[in-house]
Design brief:
The complex is a heterodimer.
Chain A: H1 26-31, H2 36-43, H3 46-56, H4 68-73, E1 84-89, H5 99-105, H6 107-120, E2 125-130, H7 135-150, E3 155-158, E4 163-171, H8 181-188, E5 212-216, H9 217-229, H10 231-234, E6 245-252, E7 258-263, E8 266-267, H11 268-275, E9 285-289, E10 298-299, H12 300-303, E11 307-308, H13 310-315, E12 324-329, H14 334-348, H15 354-371, H16 377-390, H17 398-412, H18 414-423
Parallel strand pairs in A: 1-2, 1-5, 2-4, 6-12
Antiparallel strand pairs in A: 3-4, 6-7, 8-11, 9-10, 9-12
Helix pairs in contact in A: 2-6, 2-9, 3-6, 5-6, 5-7, 6-9, 14-15, 14-17, 15-16, 15-17, 16-17
Chain B: H1 32-36, H2 38-41, H3 73-83, H4 93-104, H5 109-119, H6 123-130, E1 144-149, H7 152-156, H8 159-170, E2 183-188, E3 200-202, E4 205-207, H9 215-226
Parallel strand pairs in B: 1-2
Antiparallel strand pairs in B: 1-3, 3-4
Classes of the chains: A alpha/beta, B alpha+beta.
Bound molecules: flavin mononucleotide, iron/sulfur cluster and FE2/S2 (inorganic) cluster.
FE2/S2 (inorganic) cluster binds next to helix 7 of chain B.
């Protein structure tokens, strides 16, 4: 049996090469039609490339879901100096594990997407910023980049079209916050990874003070498919407002966790019960975090009618984020898991903003107190108040992300908190 | 395909014996080398290979040499390649620190000072940057740095127990190094392998689907590797 497990409902486009070592090589990638999109793009005008991506409706896969073509069109049309493209491969949002797979199974897909995007925004240099921990994935990517350079696909006069694009792979050194776009740029420049105040936006003042676009690995990996087959074809997948396929990273209490590529708009319960093989025998669903640790937690009831597209998840009270579906069954100790997530944010706060630096620490301390059966009911109000003060008051949204699971879990699982506070009873062990 | 056929072939007490593949290739046909890309990547060159990839960190070396020169010979070439990829030399700082740690195993004050001097940055600046990032070891670590993910997805599937098992079987406290200098064990934040819990990073390599029961065998395997 080959990796990965594939479900018949999957629509493999980006994940087509997962588990096939040949797709790492230039030769193997070309057999699958690799680099034909690059050639096609370089023979079109950059406006045409942007229009095609706009027509596809592709939205950023890094979490915010901003339309990619529109983002590219923010770059200055008149070039007065260097432009840069950053590929965000810093994947560190708890629950998310798709970019690492894309990098290590289909590195050429990512490179091709980067080159097309760079052409469209007139970037002369692409930096792929890889998470420092990704030694293996980074080395696979690095080998692919070397191969592509040797084949004249990167560098001067690409494929004889006169286009010059350099590409450099860089490795971070461990810091979740470097996934935030402006923190990533600071890190790339050899600084501490501190988010910058916006405006100015990266399209005006980005890396090295120059106009810069930053996109997630999965976003860029979708671009070659859109150029090859057209924006209208891409719209054949997914919903009107959330077109295309998405890699769903499913983790937690399901029988078959893993990455599944499905059209956006796929029903959440079908993903959990059918694609992922359901829960363990005799267990019931308690909660789901649909988009990585930064989004509000959903109760089992909220999930029943939820469809996994940007709008569908918002309607059910959360956000799609990076489509990192964390599934929790009835053995889950919600208070403990929320505290664990808050500890993560407390550890990763860059410390620039007081509400975030102090707030995450306070949230953690109060949650630990409750977890140990020493909390009071007023603590819950204090947590909510703190969360309010941490939301919308800081340079980046890490602070908001730390508050989101606290507020939503108190709203939806108040009884779990109260059992601990009133009777010292822990609900769930996991 | 039936679920029973998808078992990993190993008897696990843990509730989740999911079909792992890196570090646990189970009944998949791929070899570990194929899964990790070792065969395709080949032996990475210490001079960094093509300049476009020189700023990446090829290895955590097994043998650390705290006194070895950091920017000479092949490593000197690598630094020159790194510098050629950026509009200014400050940007070479993180790759240069990565390189220094690759050679020496940790970043001492002296190492940071040398990096500062080479890149013409102030000592305090370099220290400020180096201390921001968690992957820089400020003190020597064991031959194997074992980092266990206890973040939410792994935690739901027993990450805390896996960490406890490592500490127990190696006989150390968190963050400390065993007396034989082999193991330093710490907790780590999400490693982006959440679908393969528990994820453990040991030096530059990921081990996935690790359960508490696997820990003694895993430690034995590392002891064997160390010879
Ligand atoms: C705290 C924080 C962490 C982030 N981490 C990541 C990350 O690891 N990877 C990523 O692609 N985007 C991350 N983002 C989102 C980026 O800032 C940015 O929106 C994204 O890379 C843009 O790419 P896209 O338009 O293709 O989605 C993070 C944002 C914040 C606020
Ligand atoms: S919100 Fe937190 S992480 Fe973001 S800039 Fe402020 S202190 Fe740093
Ligand atoms: S939560 Fe453990 S790897 Fe993501």
């Amino acid at each position: 049996m080959a990796y990965p497990y594939r479900h018949e409902k999957e629509t493999p486009m980006l994940s087509r090469g997962f588990g096939d070592p040949r797709t790492r090589t230039l030769e193997g990638w070309k057999e699958l039609g690799g680099y034909t999109a690059l050639e096609k793009a370089l023979k079109s005008s950059r406006e045409e490339v942007i229009e095609e991506v706009k027509a596809s409706g592709l939205r950023g896969r890094g979490g915010a879901g901003f339309p990619t073509g529109v983002k590219w069109s923010f770059m200055p049309k008149e070039k007065k100096g260097p432009h840069y493209l950053c590929c965000n491969a810093d994947e560190s949002e708890p629950g998310t594990f798709k970019d690492r797979e894309l990098l290590r199974w289909t590195p050429h897909q990512v490179i091709e997407g980067c080159l097309i995007a760079a052409y469209a925004i007139q970037a002369e240099h692409v930096y792929i910023y890889c998470r420092g921990e990704f030694f293996e994935a980074t080395q696979v990517l690095a080998r692919a980049v070397e191969e592509a350079y040797e084949a004249g696909l990167i560098g001067k006069n690409i494929l004889g079209t006169g286009a010059d694009i350099e590409l450099t792979v860089v490795a971070g050194a461990g810091a979740y916050i470097c996934g935030e776009e402006t923190a990533l740029m600071n890190s790339l420049e050899g600084r501490r990874g501190l988010p910058r105040v916006k405006p100015p936006f990266p399209a005006a003042v980005g890396a090295f003070g120059r106009p810069t676009t930053i996109n997630n690995v999965e976003t860029l990996a979708a671009v070659p498919h859109i150029i090859n087959r057209g924006g209208a074809w891409y719209r054949g997948f997914g919903t009107e407002k959330s077109p295309g396929t998405k890699l769903f990273c499913v983790s937690g209490h399901v029988r078959r966790p893993g990455n599944y590529e499905l059209p956006l708009g796929f029903p959440m319960m079908e993903l959990i019960n059918d694609v992922c093989g359901g829960l363990r025998p005799g267990r019931t669903l308690k909660a789901v975090i649909p988009g990585g640790s930064s989004v509000p937690i959903m109760s089992a009831e909220d999930c029943e009618t939820c469809t996994l597209d940007y709008e569908g998840v918002v309607e059910c009270g959360s956000m799609l984020g990076c489509a990192s579906v964390i599934v929790m069954d009835d053995t889950t100790n919600i208070v403990k898991q929320v505290r664990r997530m808050v500890d993560f944010y407390a550890h990763e706060s860059c410390g620039q903003c007081t509400p975030c630096r102090e707030g995450t620490q306070w949230l953690s301390r109060i949650l630990v107190r409750i977890e140990n059966g020493k909390g009071t009911e007023e603590d819950l109000d204090t947590l909510l108040e703190l969360g309010d003060q941490m939301t919308g008051t800081t340079i980046c949204v890490l602070s908001d992300s730390a508050a989101a699971p606290v507020a939503s879990s108190i709203e939806k699982f108040r009884d779990d908190y109260l059992a601990l506070i009133r009777r010292g009873e822990r609900v769930g062990a996991a | 395909m039936s679920d029973s056929k998808r078992s990993t072939g190993r008897d696990r007490a843990a509730p989740f014996s999911n079909p792992g593949w890196a570090g646990n290739t189970g009944d998949f046909k791929l070899t570990e080398e194929e899964v990790r890309g070792d065969e395709y990547v080949g032996v990475r060159r210490r001079d960094g290979g093509h300049p476009s990839v020189a700023p990446t960190l090829p290895y955590i070396l097994d043998e650390k040499s705290p006194d070895a020169p950091i920017f000479e010979g092949e490593y000197g070439e690598r630094l020159e390649k790194i510098l050629s990829r950026y509009p200014d030399s400050r940007a070479a700082l993180i790759p240069a620190l990565n390189l220094a740690q690759e050679v020496r195993g940790h970043l001492s004050s002296e190492t940071m000072r040398e990096v500062a001097e080479r890149l013409e940055l102030s000592d305090a600046y370099v220290r400020g940057v180096a201390t921001f990032y968690t992957m820089y070891n400020k003190a020597p670590v064991g031959r194997f740095l074992i980092q266990v993910c206890t973040n939410i997805s792994c935690n739901l599937c027993g990450g805390d127990e896996v960490l406890a098992a490592f500490l127990e079987h190696a006989g150390v406290e968190m963050g400390e190094t065993t007396e034989d200098g082999l193991f330093t064990i710490t907790e780590v934040e999400c490693l982006a392998a959440c679908g393969f819990p528990t994820a453990v990073q040991i030096n530059s390599r990921y081990y996935e689907n690790v359960s508490a029961d696997d820990v003694p065998a895993l430690l034995d395997r590392l002891r064997e590797e160390a010879g």
